[in-house]
Every structure is written in structure tokens, then in C-alpha cells.
Amino acid sequence: MKTLGLLAGSIALAFAFGSASAAVPQDPPITLDTHVDIPFAYMHEPRFDVGKTTPLQVDLDKMRRGGLDAVFFIVYVDQGPLTPAGWAHAVAQAKQKYDDIDLMVKTYPDQIRLATTPDQVRANKRAGRLSAMIGVENGYSLGHDIKNLDAAYQRGARYVGLAHMGNNDLCSSSTPEADLGDTPLPEYGITDFGRSVVKRANQLGIMVDVSHSSDACVREVLALSTSPVIASHSSSRALDRHPRNLSDELLRAIAAKGGVIQAVAVEEFIRLDPARELAIKALQAQVAKQAGDKHFDSEKLEYLPAYVDGMKRIDAALPPPSVDDYVAHIKHMVDVAGIDHVGIASDFDGGGGLADWNDATQTRNVTAALRRAGFNDADIAKIWGGNLLRVWGDVTKNAVAGHAG
């Protein structure tokens, strides 16, 4: 009778408090980050060999430890002159990054595989492997030649960002650059070449990415595209009035088109802090001067002890935004655009990082913050990858249907 009494008591406790296993939060079905940058020395210098311990915010071990399943690695180039020489240089830089991503998956095929369809992402997850996808940031790297978009597709690119910082030959940027001769107004929106890129991306099944594009360009893309569009890394302008963020109007318009907006964890897009920004710029100038450089080169200088220690001092005095600040953006975006139209982007190794989400090992901190904000498991599954995979699938189906027609 004593045994039965203990058993009954245990059952009662289980009902009252939940079992031990039930109390452990589960990871979402797939965690997918749409924006992780790579340095130009990726996989070539030992410090950037992601199969080993690296100073990068994302490497294979960090992904596994944090429960991050899938990443869009970014083929990014700086905006340069709109000249044949400028375009040729950009195409060459992009080729190097495609080659570097290819080298990663060929070096570690048992750990990570290239995924060019949503089904391959799911299959990699079932097989216990990580997924690498490819996104293009800054259509300038197409070299003003539409054939290079087909070549990007063949290399595995599945989204193309039209612009970056500075206007280009596809569209005007949300952040014109005076050094490139840009003027803030008027926003010229999309160009004829930009229109051809959107049209061909729709035909190929490449998601069109409007992050970094001017508001005028975003509106024109939404009117032109025959498929849903994405913003691969943009947060809410209503909460942080940075021009890189999206207004509620544009959030609703992207959602109405069936697309998705991936909230980005770059501190100045989460919370404006002029004092912190000035402190960081001063530190960068100091470290660059000590290194004998005119400008701060993040790939060369960001990992030096002088910079690392300086950032620790700045973080202590002027703390960066938290993951709860970030999730406040997600919550607002969901309220405006709907639960089916918001996702996650870190922008790690490209300026992203928060107080408690500063590398891939801390992925679960985002999930915990989503729970604190009231999102249930079904919501979190959509935000952490389900929405992006759905849109990617829709873009692919529309491309197939277009070819059939």
C-alpha cells in the first residue's frame, strides 16, 4: 500500500507541475537564420576554418551547440563605382565568396550540406546535418549583366538583395552614400536593370530581397514581382527610426504579397544609442591608427585584443540592446504583418549581435525570449524558419508554374 501511495503521489505531482521531461523546452523543428556574413579569407586562413574553433560568431561547432540548424551564408560585396571596372571587380569578389562556401561544404560534408530547396533543409535536419544556403547581398555583384543572375542560381544562390549602402544600378538605397556621389533625394526607385533582375529572379525561383532598398524601390518591387518577396534582414521603423528599417506600411505590403520580413539583430536597428555609436567609432579609429591604417577594416582589426578589450569596456559602460529588445521588434512586426510573415536574421559576422545573443551558441536565448513575450510553440516554429521555408517554397512553385506556362 505504501508503494501505491507513493505512486499516486508521484502522479499527482506530475499533473500539478508537469513531468521533468515536459518541463524542458523543446527546440523549434528548424531554426533558420537568413543572414550570416563571411570574411574574404573564409576557409583559407586557419582562424576562419569553420570546422575548427574560430573567432567568428558562426562556425559549425557554435551552430551545433546553440541548436542553429540552417544558415544563409552571404555573398556580399561593397558598393563601388558604376563602371565596367567596378562591376568586374564586384563579380570577381562574389566568385571568391561562392568558392569559399563551396569549399566549406566540400571540406565538411558529414557536418553541413548545401541546401537549394526547402525540402533539402528538412532532409538535412532529419539526417542530423546542418544546412548552408546562399544569399546575395547587393545586386551590384551581378556586374550589370543579367546572365550573372543565372550563374548565381547555378552556384546555389536562392535570394538576391537588390542594394546595400549606396545607390546602385538596380535601385536606390535606404542609405545613400555621399562618398559615392549619392544624394538623399529623390529616391529613384528601381531601374530598368533592376526590373530585369526581379523578372528573371521570379522565373528562376530566386527570392527577391528588399532589405537595404529605398522605400520607393520596395514599393516598385512589390508591384512588379509575380512572387512573394522577402526582407532578409530588416527590423521595425516604428520602434527604431533608422532608414534601414521598414515602416508599418511596408511591413503590411510585404505580408499582403505573401512575403516575410526577417527581423535583424543589429544593435543600431534595434535601439538608437548615439553615445554608444560614437564610442565605437572612436575605438575603431584608434585601433586603425595603431595598426597604421587609414580606415577600420573589420576583417583585419576586429579580432585584435585592443579592439576586443575596448568593446568590453564600451559594453560595460553603454550596454547593447538585449534579446528582449529584439523580440519587441518581432512582436510589433507580428502585430502589424501577421504571424505568418516574420522571421529571424542575426547578421552575425557582419555587424549583428546583442547583449545575450552574440554568437550562434546563444540561439536558444532568442527562443526563450519569444516564449517570455507570449509566443507559443507553433508561433515560434513559424518565426524560426517555417515562414521563410513557406515563402521559399512558394517562390519555387511560381517559377515552375511560370516555366510551364
Any overview of this molecule?
This protein is α/β, with parallel strands linked by helices and 405 residues long. It has two domains: 28-272 and 321-404, Metal-dependent hydrolases (TIM Barrel), CATH 3.20.20; 274-320, no CATH class. 47% of the residues lie in helices and 11% in strands. The protein has helices spanning 2-17, 20-23, 60-66, 84-107, 118-126, 147-155, 192-204, 215-224, 248-256, 267-270, 274-290, 298-301, 305-317, 323-337, 363-372, 377-404, and strands at residues 32-37, 70-76, 112-114, 130-137, 157-161, 207-209, 230-231, 260-264, 342-345. The longest helix has 28 residues, at 377-404. It is globular, with a radius of gyration of 22 Å.
- By helix and strand content, what is the structural category? alpha/beta
Number of helices: 16
Mean of pLDDT: 92
Question: Percent of residues in beta strands?
Answer: 5-15%
Shape: globular
User: What is the CATH fold-level name of the largest domain?
Assistant: TIM Barrel
> Which oligomeric state applies?
single chain
Counting DSSP E segments of at least 2 residues, the number of strands comes to 9
The helix fraction, in percent, is 40-55%
Distance between the termini: 75 Å
Named at the architecture level, the CATH assignment of the largest domain is: Alpha-Beta Barrel
Query: Class of the largest domain, according to the CATH hierarchy?
Result: Alpha Beta
- Per CATH, the superfamily of the largest domain is Metal-dependent hydrolases
The number of domains is 2
| Poorly predicted runs of 5 or more residues | 1-22
Order of helices and strands: HHEHEHEHEHEHEHEHEHHHHHEHH
Main sheet attributes: strand count, strand direction, barrel closure: 6 strands, parallel
Rg over C-alpha atoms, rounded to the nearest angstrom: 22 Å
